[in-house]
Amino acid sequence: MATLKLINLSKRYGKSVWGAKNVNLEVNHGEFVVFLGPSGCGKTTTLRMIAGLEEVTEGMILIDDKDVTFLEPRKREVSMVFQSYAVWPHMTVYENIAFPLKLKKESKEKIDSIVNEVAEMVKIKEYLKRYPRQLSGGQRQRVALARALAVKPKIFLMDEPLSNLDAKLRVKMRTELKAIHNKTGATTIFVTHDQSEALSMADRIVVMRNGHIEQVGNPDDVYFDSENIFVAGFIGTPPTNFFKMEIKIENGKTIFFNENLKFTLSEKIKDLLKNYNKSKIILGIRPESFKIEENKNKAHFTEKILVVEPQGSHQIIALEIGDQIIKIIAPAFPKYKANEIINISFDEDRIMLFDIETEKRIRR
Ligand SMILES: Nc1ncnc2c1ncn2[C@@H]1O[C@H](COP(=O)(O)OP(=O)(O)OP(=O)(O)O)[C@@H](O)[C@H]1O
Ligand SMILES: [Mg+2]
Fold first, then answer.
1. What is the DSSP string of 208-240?
2. Distance 200 CA to ligand 2 centre (A)
3. Whose CA is nearest to atom 13 of ligand 1?
4. Are 286 and 236 in contact (CB under 8 A)?
5. What is the pLDDT confidence band of residue 163, given thresholds at 50, 70 and 90?
6. Complete domains list, the chain, with CATH
7. Which atom number of ligand 1 is nearest to the Cα of residue 19?
8. Could you tell me which residues are beta bridge partners of residue 310?
9. Rounded to an integer, what distance in angstroms lies between the CA atom of residue 60 and that of residue 114?
10. pLDDT tens digits, residue range 301-312?
């Protein structure tokens, strides 16, 4: 177990490409932290700097409060698992796992006991004598995991380790990895661009874009309390629906309107908008915060259904408002049909309001 601190960590490639810029982060003992963000946002770059595989341009990396910024990789006591399984083809599974322990000059007995222990943990005990080519992708990735676990690293680094697996196996391995983490308690940084993977595995999620951190928080924080439009739009499927609205006060009531919609909001909104003096705003509503009402008087607006996407456990209802497609999650029953007119309300405690220019969340 170990702590990790990144202080103003930056990486520049060539003269002007910043792979990561001013990354500040503190990871606690035993924490499972996920770096999440779209392709090219700097996840791998940051992870490789922690591993010592990438030279740091600016800033500092501390492991257990010790400066390791310029320490060579093998002295950092970190283990990394890559997307491509990177197991040695000419060695058996046993030899693959044992190899780093041999380098550490561990005794034969100790190596044997550790190999068996980690093989048991990742469920590959029956394959110890096979070669990687005799294994499936999922099994090969388990070998890579076992090899990384075997050295009992201070910090476990994983770069999209599940993304080469098929969808079903990926979901299964998520649960197993989480269980292994609960057992070993190793401080872990896990990289993914899959928001659902991040939500389901992380103690804390670090949402990244263009080399910098947009928000750090537990899965509920980043989902229900998104810091800006990017985070609200990136996390959740279907994503948050955004409405560009104008604000006006009529008879003391706050009204949001645009060319297609108009609704009066509760008194709470007034308080929230106390220090906001622009006339336009971005309203964010998650698909499950909508409700289809029988009674028109309870609705914020009425709209015709464009498409219904049944999902078994629930239905996704798509509406076309202006030139925008809005998605609503409705229970499995009653069933709705395209072209049906429905009354729609939303939970005003769950809406998110964003500044039209900065795209940052408006807070009290
Ligand atoms: N060796 C390199 N030389 C130049 N630019 C690089 C190099 N490696 C990465 N970059 C750039 O740095 C930025 C961050 O890349 P990085 O690989 O960290 O992204 P990522 O978040 O891991 O993306 P992905 O999800 O696609 O793996 C990108 O703009 C990328 O083009
Ligand atoms: Mg990457």
1. EETTEEEEEE-HHHHHHS-SBHHHHHHSSSSPP
2. 20
3. 19
4. yes
5. confident
6. 4-234 (3.40.50.300), 241-355 (2.40.50.140)
7. 12
8. 315
9. 33
10. 999 999 999 999
